[in-house]
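Q: I have 301 residues here and want to know how they pack in 3D. Can you give me a structure?
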Amino acid sequence: MDEKKLWLTAIRPFSFTATIIPVLLGTSLAIKTGTFSLDLFIIVLSGVLLLHAGTNLINDYYDYQSGVDKEGHLGGSGVLTSGLLKPEQVKLSAFFCFSLAFLLALYLIYQQGLMIGILFLIGLAGGYFYTARPINYKYYALGVPGVFLLLGPILVGVSYYIQTGSYNNQVFLISLPIALLVSAILHGNDFRDIKYDSEVGIKTLANILERELAGQFYFLLVGLSYFTIVLLVLKGLLTNWALITLITIPYAKDNFSDVIEAMESSTEKVKIIESKTAKLHLKFGLLLVIALLGANFLNRS
């Protein structure tokens, strides 16, 4: 494997949609208010992607150091368990990404004040301590709630705040469907790893609930994302345009079929639940962004 492909494998760019969608959503809500700066959007998106890349790297490092990631395990990028990279290389690369993100944050702090610094530290701590001691909250069944907050209300809110300098309950409520789906991505990963995580002593919601209830919790997370969209439309917080997200329901039903099969017996399909949920999150999120931008364009024309 050449060096470029090796580092792409390590940072796992396929996972970046989980952060790109919240940034697009928060920015779209800002555009609705008539406020948009392309420069700020590029800085925020770049900073968030650097934080995400650093998080993926540092999570790999600590999972490997803790003995959680081992050869043959599906989790992580595999660059450490296969010996393609040394632990210190991965750790230093993570700090490099975090440092670049911090430089971008400094510019935003200079432009908009210390609140940006506080929000940056929350995001950095959330990514770093996902697996890093002494908190390593992933190992104590707090991964799904943490991701729900970080890649839902917080990231959507930050993206909106940096554009507008304000925040409101509507932004929070509209972030919830995306937060539910990104939580479903992680839960899909944990559902796949129920047996393995139990063997290495990791607590996740999936292995606490066990296979049947964990599958039902997946249905709840995905189902609530659609219910929330409909409710927000009925309450007038979203226009009818947002209902175009419902065209992704067949993809959700397909995922449900895979989960049901995995609940009933250990099948190969359990390995693809995470990636299929990520694709659902991407499609759903893009349609919601298009709905917001489309409604805004028509109102102004």
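Q: Anything worth noting?
A: The chain is about 75% helix and 0% strand. The chain has a mean pLDDT of 94.
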